[in-house]
Amino acid sequence: MPSKVRTCIAFKDQAEEAARFYVSVIPNSAFESAFRREPDGPAVLVSFTLAGTPYQALNMGRETSHNEAFSISVTTKDQRETDEIWEKLLEGGGAEIQCSWLKDRYGICWQIVPEALPRMFMDDDRAAAGRAFQAMLGMVKIDIAALEAAFRGDSA
Question: For 111-148, what is each residue's pLDDT tens digit?
Fold first, then answer.
């Protein structure tokens, strides 16, 4: 059964290209369908899932603007997965932002968040959580080892 609710991302004319790129980057994702007005024409609306979360991408035929008010957050299990997804999303013209955020070549913002990050932030030891948070503020891509060192209070 199709999902009743989907986030729809608007593009000028790159909806299908972007959706296919995203499903190639995020594990356990799938391109579902493309609606075309003409059989050989460009897709107007595409449906896809990213790790089980449903999305649509719509070609508006005019320039659209994306900003940090909308982002896709991806939880990663370790530094290897964090690095891999981060690098793939930056391919072809993306830009690093700060504190686990980046913007891909289509202008969509992403947060690549190792599962260790919120675990440290929510720890009962508020001083340790604060050290981890302060360390994160100085990062672009998250460095789990550096966060853990800050959390423990290790001196650099």
Answer: 999 999 999 999 999 999 999 999 999 999 999 999 99
Structure tokens at 47: 């449906």
The candidate with the shortest Cα–Cα distance to 2, out of 32, 35, 25, is: 32
Please say whether the beta carbons of 86 and 112 come within 8 A. yes
Query: Are 54 and 23 spatial neighbours (Cβ–Cβ below 8 Å)?
Result: no
- Both structure tokens of 65: 């603007």
- Which structural domains are found in the chain, ordered by start? 1-64 (3.10.180.10), 66-156 (3.10.180.10)
Q: Are 11 and 57 in contact (CB under 8 A)?
A: yes
Scanning the structure block, which residue is given the tokens 């991408």?
57
Cβ neighbours of 23 (radius 10 Å):
19
